[in-house]
Design brief:
Blueprint: H1 2-10, E1 79-83, E2 89-93, E3 103-110, E4 122-124, E5 136-144, H2 156-161, E6 165-174, E7 177-178, E8 197-201, E9 204-208, E10 211-217, E11 227-231, E12 256-261, E13 273-279, H3 290-294, E14 298-307, E15 310-313
Parallel strand pairs: 1-12, 3-5, 4-8, 11-13
Antiparallel strand pairs: 1-2, 2-15, 3-4, 5-6, 6-10, 7-9, 8-9, 11-12, 13-14
Length: about 325
């Protein structure tokens, strides 16, 4: 079942624009009209507003893109080269602080079907800046009538008003919502697509990336699993101007940080939601792997949980 959920998140969607008859329609002569994602209005997306961002908030001087402007996540400050637990270089995207609680994403299935409705875009009820938004989504299976026409339903409110049954699964997917045209070209596996995927939000089209370097499931308490990362900044957080605003320490003339991740996608405990601990930048030169990072002077533990999917390992 999990693969079926992932498939509907990753593959391009067909567009159905014709009318058809549906069990929910009381008019016996006409059926509901499917919405066309190609012509539907796009939702306004801003990941860098004060409501949406934590580490990345537009201030007029830092150059972060305006609302609805495509973002190139392949460029700094959105891509970082760190170290794996054994000291092998890795690269990961920086998608900002995210909560432990996933947001729901609704996947529609016809009665008795084992795969999602062909052509139906998945539905979300929050976007960046909304209360409860997360890049991490818990998949909800929504059952619709056998005569359902794809993309007739394009909002959570419509799901509820029609009384469709739904079932929460334990599947978590990492799908950051971004402005149309945004780029994040790197993926850990060559089998992963870097293309944007479309979904519905309140009858409007949204776009999101999909990262599937590791299958994720909710924890026993229904949360997104986490793994640890140890980082250090150019200015220590306890000093004026210190912490994230000062940037990560890097080797001279290089993008190589000595930020060390505890796990990589091959490890059982891997998660792209990182629990961030900070070590003293005076120890930068001695840190080359997880044991040495763990031996550094730790200045802060659990300072944030950030979405940083690993997309490359040397």
């Amino acid at each position: 079942m999990k693969k079926q959920f992932l498939a509907i998140l990753m593959v391009p969607f067909l567009m159905l624009t014709a009318c058809n008859k549906d069990d929910d329609n009381n008019d016996m002569n006409t059926g509901p009209t499917a919405k066309n994602p190609d012509t539907a209005e796009k939702a306004s997306i801003d990941r860098f507003s004060s409501d949406a961002g934590t580490l990345f908030v537009r201030d007029g001087s830092n150059g972060l893109p305006a609302a609805n402007v495509a973002v190139n996540f392949d460029e700094a400050p959105f891509i970082t080269q760190g170290l794996s637990a054994d000291g092998t270089p890795v690269r990961y995207y920086n998608f900002d602080v995210m909560p432990l609680t996933p947001a729901p994403i609704y996947v529609l299935f016809k009665e008795g079907a084992s795969s999602p409705v062909d052509g139906q875009l998945n539905i979300v009820n929050v976007i960046p800046g909304d209360a409860g938004y997360s890049d991490f989504w818990q998949v909800y299976k929504v059952t619709v009538p056998s005569s359902y026409v794809a993309n007739v339903v394009t909002s959570y409110q419509e799901i509820m008003s029609k009384g469709y049954s739904m079932e929460a699964t334990t599947t978590i997917v990492n799908c950051p919502v971004v402005p149309d045209g945004s780029i994040a070209s790197m993926r850990y596996s060559s089998s992963e697509s870097a293309d944007l995927v479309r979904g519905w939000y309140n009858g409007k089209v949204v776009y999101y990336f999909s990262f599937f370097e590791k299958d994720l499931m909710t924890t026993s308490s229904g949360m997104v699993p986490v793994s640890d990362i140890l980082v250090t900044f150019n200015i220590n957080p306890d000093q004026t101007g210190g912490g994230p605003a000062s940037g990560f320490v890097t080797e001279p003339g290089s993008m190589q940080t000595h930020n060390v991740v505890q796990t990589v996608p091959e490890n059982a405990g891997y998660s792209p939601l990182w629990d961030v601990d900070v070590y003293d930048n005076a120890d930068f030169d001695m840190v080359m792997d997880w044991p040495s990072a763990s031996s550094a002077n730790i200045l802060g533990m659990g300072v944030a949980t950030v979405n940083c999917p690993i997309v490359w390992k040397q």
